[in-house]
Design brief:
Blueprint (H helix, E strand, L loop, with lengths): L8 H21 L7 H7 L1 H6 L3 E3 L6 E3 L3 H10 L4 H14 L5 H25 L7 H29 L5 H5 L4 H24 L5 H39 L3 H16 L2 E6 L7 E4 L6 E6 L9 H32 L9 H10 L5 E8 L1 H8 L1 H18 L5 E6 L2 E6 L4 H16 L2 E3 L2 E3 L2 E8 L4 H14 L4 E4 L2 H17 L8 E10 L4 E13 L3 E3 L5 H7 L2 H23 L4 E5 L2 H5 L2 H9 L6 E5 L1 H4 L4 H10 L3 E7 L6 H6 L4 E4 L11 H16 L4 E3 L5 H9 L4 E2 L8 E2 H4 L19 H4 L9
Parallel strand pairs: 11-12, 14-16, 16-17, 17-18, 18-19, 19-20, 20-21
Antiparallel strand pairs: 1-2, 3-5, 4-5, 6-8, 6-11, 7-8, 9-10, 13-14, 13-21, 13-22, 14-15
Helix pairs in contact: 1-6, 4-6, 4-9, 5-6, 6-7, 7-9, 9-10, 10-11, 10-12, 11-12, 14-15, 15-16, 20-22
InterPro entries: Biofilm_reg_signaling, EAL_dom, EAL_sf, GGDEF_dom, Nucleotide_cyclase, Rev_trsase/Diguanyl_cyclase
Pfam families: EAL, GGDEF
Organism: Motilibacter rhizosphaerae
Amino acid sequence: MAEAGRIPLRARAVFTALALLALALTVVRVPCSLPAPGWWLAALAVPVLARYPLVVLRHASGYEIGLDPVVVLFLAFAEPRHAALLWALSTTVAQGTTERGPWVRCFNAADSVLAGLAALAVAHLCDPGANPSGVLGVVTAALAGTTYYAVDYALSAVAVAVLGRAPLRSALWDETAPVMLASAGGCASLGYLGALVLHQDAAAFPLVLVPLVTVVYAGHAFSGVEDERLRFQALFTAARAQHAARDSREVLASAVEAGEHALGNSDVRIVSERPDGGIASPLGQGGPWLAASPKGTATRVYQDDDVDVLDLLATLTGDSLSRLALVSELEQLATVDGLTGLANGAALARALREAGPGAAVLFIDLDGFKAVNDEHGHDAGDALLRAVAHRLRRSVRTGDLVARPGGDEFVVLLPEADGPTAEGLAARVVTDLARPVSVGGSTVAVGASVGVAVGGGDLVRRADIAMYAAKRAGKDRYARCTDEMHRQHMEARDLPEQLRGAGERGELVLHYQPIVDLALGRVDGVEALIRWQHPTRGLLAPDAFIPQAEESGVVDELTAWVLQRAVADGAALHAAAGRQVSISINVPAAALVRGVLLDELRHGSREDVQLILEVTETTLAEPAAVPVLEEFRRRGVRIALDDFGTGHSSLAALRLLPVDIIKLDRAFTADLPGDPRAGHLIRSVGSLASALDKPLVVEGIEGADQLAELQRLGVVLGQGFLLARPAPLAQVLPLVAPGATVRGLRQPPLTASSASAPSPAQVP
C-alpha cells in the first residue's frame, strides 16, 4: 500500500503488531543451518520482481500484482527447509528499499512476510515431502498461491480500515477481488513451474526464466502503453468537457473524473491545501489543489509519469477556471453600466424576460440634465448620473432592479408590485431626485419625470409613454400609463405609415386663412393650412399628425403635396380675384434643407401664383437653409419670417437674412389693448419693419378691441379668427372677389380640432 496521509495512532499500533508477529514467526521457522550460497542468489530475485508489478484492470480500480511471490512457491518446493528464512529476509529488503514512508514500509514488509509464511505453511501441510510432481504438487501449489494472496489481501484491507479510508467490510471485498485473485494465482504458478523443472531436469531450469522475464517485460510494456492511452484519453475528454463547462463546478468535476481515469486506482479530489501523502498539483497560483491518493485496498506507488499527467491536468483545469472567470467578468461588464454600476440595457432586457405577470416598471427621465452638461461640462453630468444612481438604489425596495439603459434615462423593475405600490415608489423617486445635488463644486437641481406601468406586456414601452405624459403635464412628477394613454400612443405611432400616400388617396385637403389689409378690409393673401381627412377619425388638424410626420420623415411628402395643391389653387384664386393673391405655406427646416420644395417648384411653378414660404427663426439659424432660401428668391418666391419675436434673431441678422416679410407672433397681440407695453412693442416692430422695407403681418387678431388697437398703431396687414377662420378654397374664393371685404367676418370651424389656432410648429 502507499502512504496517503498521516498515519493514525491505531494504525501504527496494528502495523507494529504485525511486524512483531512476522518477526516471531520467522524466528520460529528458521532452521539451525544456513542455506547454500546459491539460494541466496535466488532470493535476490524478490527485490527485482517487486519493482515490476503487473497492473490488472487499470481502467477500473487498477490493482497491482507483485511477481515476487513467484519466489515463495519456488522455494516451497525447491528449498523448503530454508524457504521461510530466505523469503523473510529478501522481502524485507525489497520493501525496505522502496520510496515510501517508514510506517508503510513496515506494514508492507510484515504483510509480505506473513503472507509468504502462511503460503509455506500450507505447502508443508499439503505436501511435507515437497514433491512438485503429480496431482498433489499441483494442488499444493494452487492452495499455497491462493493462501498468499488471500492473506495479503486481508491484511491490506485491515490496513485500509485502520487508516480510516474505508470500512472493513467494503475493504475486504469488492467487485474486482475475484479477477485480482485469479490473476495473482496464475502469475504465482510460474514459481511452481520453476520448481517442477528443477526437480525433473536441473539443466533445463534456465529455460524457466524465459517465460518469467517475458511476463515481466511484456506486462510492463503493455502497462506503459495502456497508461499512455488512458492518460491521453482522459486529458482529451477533460479538455472537451471543460471547454463546454458553464461554471467552475463542472470544470472541477471533469478534472476529478479525468484524474481518476488517467491515474487508475486513485481517489482524486479537490482540496484547499496540499495533502501530506499521495500526489498533488496546484490549480493556479493561490488556488486549490488537485490531489490523488490510492483507492481502497490499492497497493500502488505513483511514478513520475503519474505526477506529470496530474500536473498537466491541473494546468488544463486552471486555464479553464481562468477562462470561466474571464467570461464571467466579461458577462458582468456586458450587463453592468460602467458609469453608475447599475444594470445596463442587456441586463434589464434579460430581467424583463424572466419577470412574472405581477411585475411593474418605472421609467425615469431627468429634467434639465442637458443644461447641467452644457453649463458645467460632461464630468459634472457624469457625477450627477452617479448621484442619481445612488439615490435610486436607496429609494427602491430589496429585490427591485435599477438599470440605466443609457443617457439620462433610468428604469426600475419591480418583480412584484400592484398599482398603489408602484405609484408610491414613483412618488418617492420624484421627491428624492428633486433635492439639489452637489457636483464639481456647484449645486444643481434637476427633477425627474417618471412613467409607471403595472402588469401586462410591453412594460418599458408603456412606462415610457407615461413618462412623456408626465413631461407634457409639467415635468417633475409621475404618471401611470392608462389604456387610453396607450391607445393614443399606438394611434400616433401608426399615423406616419397611414400618412404615406394620403395625398394620392385624396385624404389631404388645404384650408386657407386670409391675410387682410386692415385699412381696406381686402384679402391681400392667404395662408395654406393642411388638414387630413382620416378614414376613421374624421378631419384632423395639423397638431394631430404633423409632429409624427416630422419625426418619421413623411413631412417631406406632405410639404411637396401642399406646394403642388397651393400652386393649383393659386390659379383659382387669381381668377376669382382678378388680381394676384399671394399664397403662404409653412416650410419645415428639414424639407427646406433637403431641397424638396425646389424640385417641386421647378416642375409646378406658375407665373400667376405668388408664393410665400413661411420659415421660423430656428430654420433661418440652419447654415444650409440660407442658400436654399436665396435660390427661392431668385425664382420669384418671397420669404416670410414667421413667429417673429419668439426666437433669437438679432436686428443685424434680420437685415442680412433673406427675408421679405415679417410675421409678428400672436403673443404680442394677446395682451392688447390692456397692456400699453404690448402696444409699444408692436409699434417698435412696425417701425423696424418699415425701416427695413419689409411688410409686417400681425397674427392672432381675435377680438374687435385688438383690431381697433392695431389699426390705431398703424398696422397694415393682419390675420386672425376675428377676420376669418381657415376654410376650404370654395369658401375663400368669394372673399377675394373684387369689392369683397372680410373685416370682422367669422367663418364657423369645421371641427373642434380644426377650430384651434394653428401653431407654426404644427403647420407645414
